[in-house]
Amino acid sequence: MIFIFDVETIPDFEFLRRVLNQPEIDEEELLLQASEELTRNNSGFLPPMYHRMVSWAGLWVENNGKPVQKVAWNGENEKEGLKSIFDTLLTYKDFGLVHHNGRGFDLPLLTYRSMKHNMQMPMRLNHYDIRYRFSKENVDLMDEFSNYGASSFPKLKHLGYLIDVPFKQTAEGNEVLAMYRDGKLAEIEHYCYEDVMATYIVWLRMKYTVGDIPEDMFSNLNDRALSKLKEIQAG
User: Fold this and answer.
1) 71, 84, 92, 130: which is closest to 1 by C-alpha?
2) How many CB atoms lie within 10 A of CB 147?
3) Residue pair 120/130 in contact by the 8 Å Cβ criterion
């Protein structure tokens, strides 16, 4: 079985205050200072260590690409959210992973936050099949399309443009904090699930393109996935 997933986060302001020794300044000033001192290449987006999870969504699919079950969580209790995703992963012994930039963000985030909460992750996540840089059991679409960094890293939204599928209709990643401040946790989960379906659709197209899925199976799965994506985007 394969788990296609995405995680949504906000900055861990309490942690940032300790790191930057700024207990008094407001959150916007704190974020500005953090983006100047803690980001790589002046991107402004904080590394995974400085985030906390507020939602995740996943889709279990069979190895041939057939979807089986959607699972998701949102909430304030991050430890509860970590337990829920780890319990989900323990459903299958030898699961594989598919994601977009999961190696660079989502998986390190899960490790950092597990350390923070003194939790133990599923052993599979530290197995060679998952940790190996070129593993086919842990597929990062950014690696696949960039040939492991030899070319540029594509954005998920741009991959959608390429295959004429509109992604990112619910929100953008930089809107998650504003949604969280407005108490829109359910909407964040909805946005997260849209990203999961987008990742699934791109992965299906890639699998078909390289000859791993026959045309008749791809057409059926792709039509169903596009229909589901439209349903999600309709709200």
Assistant:
1) 92
2) 8
3) no
Sign of CA dihedral 189, 191, 197, 199: negative
Taking a C-beta distance cutoff of 8 angstroms, is the pair 67, 10 a contact? no
Q: What would you report as the CA-atom Rg of the chain, rounded to the nearest whole angstrom? A: 18
Which tokens in the block code for residue 92?
Answer: 């299958």
- Contact by Cβ (8 Å): 127, 85: no
Token code pair at residue 185:
């946790």
143: nearest Cα among 109, 103, 105: 103
**Rounded to an integer, what distance in angstroms lies between the CA atom of residue 27 and that of residue 76?**
18
Backbone angles phi and psi of 55, in degrees to 5: -165, 155
- The model's pLDDT over 64-102, given as tens digits with 9 standing for 90+, comes to 999 999 999 999 999 999 999 999 999 998 999 999 999
Q: Which amino acid is at 144?
A: E
